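Aim 2, interim progress. The first record below pairs a target sequence with its structure tokens.
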Amino acid sequence: MLEGKHVLVVDDNLDIVVALSDFLELNGCNVISATTGKEAIELVKHEKIEIAILDVKLPDINGVALLDAIKKENPTIAVIMMTGYSTHKDIIDAMRKGASDFLLKPFEYDNLIMVMIRALRERTLLIEKESLFKNLEDKKKIELLNRELQAKIQELTTMYNISNQFNKLNLYDDVYERMVNIAYDVTGASLCRFYIYDDNNKETILFKEKRDMEEDSGDDKILFTTDLAWVYNNPKRCLVKDDALLIPVMIKGELIGFLTVKKKKIGLEQNVFQQESDLFFLKLICEKASSQIENRILYESLFDNIFKTHMSLITAINKRDSYTENHCKRVTEMSLALADRIGLINVEKDALRVVAPIHDLGKIGVPDTILLKPAKLTDEEYAIMKNHSNLGQEILSQFEILSRESIIIRNHHERFDGKGYPDKLSGENIPVCARILSVCDTFDAMTTNRPYRRAASIKEALQEIERCSGSQFDPAIAEEFIKMILNGDYGKK
């Protein structure tokens, strides 16, 4: 399909240009390349080009502007845009200016081939459209081609919106609810439901639903109970019946449920094209939802293993030093209470739950002669002790999923005025969780008896925190901490 096709590859990353060129040449394409927009425009003027693959970000010209220049020079060139990051506006602008498709890096080569084949089919329409414009022969056919091209733009935009809505999901969002809402909006349904499939009892259970106000609540049973086996075994994996659609949701070949959509009365029966479009988008929605669900299953399994390792680290810390054990427990309780008080977002709270119990993890690497010394440390010993924040980061950063938490451990001894350690960060450059740990850690250290000094009173400790507000501590966090302790929720009575 691609043999002999003339392809222009434009990217400022030479490695990507070489990789794409080698792959396309292996597939029989004649490839020319450029690393700037100016080079690309010159090639378009003097070389035969059927498909252009452009990066959105180029050193001298925006990729969308280059697309516009290419289309003005030769409207029949099929243009595929690619980028490592994009916005909805980028895609809409590119489609309006005539892009055939949009690829997000990194992409599979097989996906590139499919996109190029679709682009060549579209190019056939472009060539025919251009011919019709030049000959002024068939205005109705031109209008039809325009509608087809507009429909293609609308289809790609809808596909992007579907993918984007799933990609924006975080761990606290409900995948099933998002799937139902997207299907409802995209198809213009009056009723959309997701049923969980109970394989043991061979029955479905209604789990999520969205409906029009006018839609009768009706039965919560699946719309096509007698047809489930047929749908599952049907190669098309779908069922259209009256004004309703049913699509199975699968993970690695295993059925987990069904997505059903009931159309409004003006829907499926009167418009076969719309029916095919709805089925296409519903299958895409189910695929995206399946991928999200599978990723969460894998994430939960991975996080469970890391949590067990995390508990082992806490046990190791506790066995080294009983003071560190009790200190970490108290700091964890105060930190989480303070996080609630200042309205910390859930993602940050989760990080704090992981970090606070092991914020002194690096003390594992501090010699017993220093860690357990029953007297004040010398300057040399204190320098070794200070390195525990670096050691803690090194240990925790071995778990890639906890890289963010490892930075908090590294920075929990930074000062708001930039005079802390190890990086001398200041102000809001210090992670908010580290700023919370700093005040709680200091308060607990001051109010705990040590062999070489007596514990300070609550009043004395709070006065010291107030005095160091704005220098050692974030003033806003210090203020809330003082209020929390004075309320009597925490601290030594």
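The second target in this work package is listed in the same format:
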Amino acid sequence: MAQRDLVPESYVPALLAWINGGLTAEGSQAYRRLFGIGIAEWHVLAYLGHIGVGTGLAISKSLYVDKAAVSRSIASLKRKKLVRTVVHSRRNIEVFPTEQGMDRYRKILRLALLREKQLLKDFSPEERAQLIEFLHRLLKRLPDIQNLSANYRVS
């Protein structure tokens, strides 16, 4: 099979990276200006606002983010009194949103949902459902991609 050229406009990882990059850069600026936290902190706070409790490892795995980045976000949120931690052991530290953290979560959530609505403005409800289904199918492939990359040998 002949190898095709990489055409960014039709290369799915590039398209996803562009969308993510645009949302992340603009979102981080807006969230810092309006709410005093960046996008990485928002992702951790959103996880905790939805789930209620987590560990750095659980949050890292769920968000597909480096554990060190999650730890920095947790430390920042803790300094801002938006989360609290309960230490069970050195490797088992639970993180909970504080009342102030949940209040901030709800405020940011309003903007996050408006941003999503704007992003999907040109999609019908059926197309939106289909897009979400497609994205979940891509998420299911991530472990296979990680395995492929880990076992790839340069020839």
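The two ends are 16 Å apart (CA to CA). This observation will shape the mutagenesis plan for the next reporting period.
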